[in-house]
Amino acid sequence: MISDADAIRRLQETIPRVDPHLVLDVGAVRYLTEPYPGVEYGLRLGDAGALLFVSETDLTAPDWQPRLLKRLEAAKRYLEGFPQANSSRVRST
């Protein structure tokens, strides 16, 4: 089981590599065991936000960095679909 502190550290380390405008909601980070083990976390882009999930494997596998990067890139694309994502920033291309 990954601790909330380790999950936060790994998310905070990886998020700026995807987009410096992405913001982790640290208060929304929590470990879940059901239906799958992993971490629930809040992510914001501009005024758009979502509560997301990443599997424990994606955070703890030896290749966790590229796995987490891939998940966060997908989360960014998802958030970019909301008009609020652009309300306080210029959309990246």
Word description of this protein:
The chain has three helices and three strands, in the order αβββαα. It has helices at 4-18, 56-60, 64-80; strands at residues 22-32, 38-45, 48-55. Helices cover 40% and strands 29% of the residues. The mean pLDDT is 91. It starts with a helix and ends in a 13-residue tail after the last helix. It has one domain: 2-Layer Sandwich (Double Stranded RNA Binding Domain). Helix 1 crosses helix 3 (64-80). A hairpin with a 5-residue loop joins strand 1 (22-32) and strand 2 (38-45). It has 93 residues and is an alpha+beta fold. 19% of the residues are buried. The longest helix is centred in the last third of the chain and has 17 residues, at 64-80. The radius of gyration is 13 Å and the shape is globular.
Strands of the biggest beta sheet: in what spatial order?
A: 1-2-3
Helix segment tally: 3
Biggest sheet descriptor? 3 strands, antiparallel
Q: Would you tell me the overall average pLDDT?
A: 91
Order of helices and strands: HEEEHH
Assigned CATH architecture: 2-Layer Sandwich
Low-confidence stretches: none
Q: Roughly what percent helix?
A: 25-40%
A few lines on this structure:
With 93 residues, the protein is α+β, with helices and mostly antiparallel strands. The protein is 40% helix and 29% strand. The chain has a single domain, classed as 2-Layer Sandwich (Double Stranded RNA Binding Domain).
Which descriptors would you attach to this protein?
alpha+beta; 29% strand; 3-stranded antiparallel sheet; 93 residues; Double Stranded RNA Binding Domain; 3 strands; single chain
